[in-house]
Specification:
The structure is a single chain. This protein is α+β, with helices and mostly antiparallel strands. 40% of the residues lie in helices and 17% in strands. The chain has five helices and four strands. It has a four-stranded mixed beta sheet, with helices on both faces. The two termini are 13 Å apart.
Length: 109
């Protein structure tokens, strides 16, 4: 994960609210990681917030995990772009997005 770069307090607050919503819906997770422009420090006014939720409970059904995560984000006042990963999938050498998240991501929950 990225070092010496931090997300804004506003982003931390949004992700904290999102994490609480996930817990209320009994969606377990190991980590929530912000990646993309907000993690790299080159976001602009129209940037969405790229978020990776890592959980062993996602299993093989990627689409069901994504639907659950997106439905939990509906009431969050931010443009969250969410991707689910299992702990095994996030370590894949063959997934360029996983590598991007590992390289530049900032764990926020």
């Amino acid at each position: 994960m990225a070092q010496n770069i931090s997300v804004t307090p506003h982003i931390r607050t949004l992700i904290s609210e999102y994490a609480q919503t996930l817990k209320k819906r009994n969606i377990t997770f190991d980590q929530i990681v912000v990646f993309g422009s907000h993690a790299k420090g080159n976001e602009h006014a129209a940037s969405d917030i790229d978020v990776c939720v890592i959980s062993p409970s996602f299993g093989a059904d990627y689409h069901q995990a994504l639907v659950s995560l997106l439905s939990a984000a509906i009431d969050i006042d931010g443009d969250l772009d969410i991707v689910p990963y299992t702990p095994a999938d996030i370590t894949s050498q063959y997934d360029p997005l996983a590598k991007e998240i590992r390289t530049y991501g900032i764990r926020v929950a």
